Amino acid sequence: MAKFRLLPTLLAGMMLSVASLSDTARAADYYAGKTIRMIIPLAPGGGTDTFGRLIGRHLGRHIPGRPTIEAENVTDVGGLLGSNEFAEGVEHDGTTLLASSGHLNLRAILGLRGLRLDLDELEPLVAAPMGHVTVIAARAGIAEPREVLDAEGPLTKGITDPIGLLESLMAMELLGLDYRGVPGYGNRGDTLTAFERGELMINTQSTAFYLDRVAPLVEAGSAMPLYAIGFIDEEGNPVRDPAVPDMITAPELYEQIHGEMPSGIAWEAFKVTVPLVQNTRGTIWVHADIPEQAMEALRQGVAAMVDDPEFQAARDEILGDYGVIQGDELDWVRATMDAISPELMNYLRDLLGTRFGTEFEG
C-alpha cells in the first residue's frame, strides 16, 4: 500500500517537472525575434551609462530567445525625462528596461518633485556597487583625518544636485562637520576642478575617479584623504571599500574622533542612504508586472551572463573590484527601502529642503 500512497506525490512531482519545463519553454519563446529597449536616463559617458551599456552588450545573448538590446540615452537634468517615460510611457511587457543610478533610486524613494518613478512597482535584475572617497585640501592645516574638526578655513564643498551627493553629505552630517555648501556646479568633475584651483576645501569623487584623478593630488601633497564612504553590511556595520582597503571609512573616523561608534538620527540615515547609493552604482530595473515568462527569461539571462567568462572579463575592466549583484543578493534593495521609516524620510527631506532647497512631492 505504501507505493500507492506515494503515487500522488510522484504524480505531483512529475506535474511540477512538466510545468517547469513548460515555463522554461515559454521563457525561451517569449523574446525570440524581439528587441529590448534599455532607457538610460542619464548622460552618455557617466557611470550609469557605462554600466547600462556593459549589461546591454552581454545580456541579450544569454536571455532565452536571444533578443537584441538597444541602449538609448533619454536625458535631462536629474534623469526625470527618461525615468518618467519608463514609468508611464511604455508597455509593461518586458521589452523595456531602465538603467538607474543609486542617486536616481534615492530621488524616487524620497519623492523628488516631478519624478514619477515608483520603485515599489519595479523589480531589480542586476546592480553594481561603487565606492566614494572624500579628500580635504592640504591648506586646511591638519596632519591626519582625526583632526578634521580643527581644520582651518571654511569647509567649503561644491554642490551639484544635492541628492546626487547625499552619501557624502550624510558622512559630513554624521561627523558633525561645520561645512558650507557652494551651489552651482554642473557635475562632480567641475567640483574637482574648483578644488584644484583652491576654491573648495572638501571634495568627494567615486573611488575609481579618486584613484585616477585625485590620488595624484595626494601624492603631490596638495590634498589628504579623509575617509572612504565605505559600505554597510546586513548588521549595520561599516565595511571598507575593497578598492581602497587601507583607507578608513566615515564611521571609523567618527570612532577615532569621539571614541565610540556613531548613533542617533544621522547615523540611522547614513545606514540606509549609503547602501542605496554605494551598492547601486547602476541598477537595471524592469516593471514587476510583466508576463511571468518574460520575467523568468530575464532572470535566466542575468544568471547566465554573470557566469560567462567573457562578461566577467569586461565587468572587471569596467567595474574593477566591485563586480555585480543579482538574484537573492538583491533582496537587500527592498529591505533597505523598507528600513526608511517616516522619521528618517522626514529627516532627509528636511535636510535637503532646508539646506539646499530641494523640493519633494506631497
Written description of the protein model:
α4 packs across α9 and α5 runs parallel beside α8. The protein is an alpha/beta fold and 362 residues long. The protein is built from 13 helices and 13 strands.
Primary descriptors:
single chain; 362 residues; alpha/beta; 6-stranded mixed β-sheet; 3-stranded antiparallel β-sheet; 13 strands; 46% helix; disordered N terminus
- Main β-sheet description: 6 strands, mixed
Measured by DSSP, the beta-strand proportion falls in 15-25%
Q: What's the helix count?
A: 13
Number of DSSP-assigned strands = 13
What is the terminal separation in angstroms? Answer: 66 Å
The amount of helix comes to: 40-55%
Using the CA coordinates, give the radius of gyration: 23 Å
The poorly predicted ranges are 1-19
Give the class from helix and strand content and strand pairing. Answer: alpha/beta
Shape: globular
The overall pLDDT average reads 90
The helix/strand series, from N terminus to C terminus, equals HEHEHEHEEEHEHEHEEEHHEHHEHH
- Read across the widest sheet, the strand sequence of neighbours is 2-1-3-12-4-13
Question: What would a concise description of this structure say?
Answer:
With 362 residues, the protein is of the alpha/beta class. The protein is built from 13 helices and 13 strands. It has helices at 2-30, 47-59, 80-88, 102-110, 166-175, 188-196, 207-220, 250-258, 265-278, 292-306, 309-319, 331-338, 342-356; strands spanning 35-40, 68-73, 96-100, 122-128, 132-137, 155-158, 179-182, 202-206, 223-228, 231-232, 238-239, 282-287, 325-326.
Structural topology:
Layout: H1 2-30, E1 35-40, H2 47-59, E2 68-73, H3 80-88, E3 96-100, H4 102-110, E4 122-128, E5 132-137, E6 155-158, H5 166-175, E7 179-182, H6 188-196, E8 202-206, H7 207-220, E9 223-228, E10 231-232, E11 238-239, H8 250-258, H9 265-278, E12 282-287, H10 292-306, H11 309-319, E13 325-326, H12 331-338, H13 342-356
Parallel strand pairs: 1-2, 1-3, 6-7
Antiparallel strand pairs: 3-12, 4-12, 4-13, 5-8, 5-9, 10-11
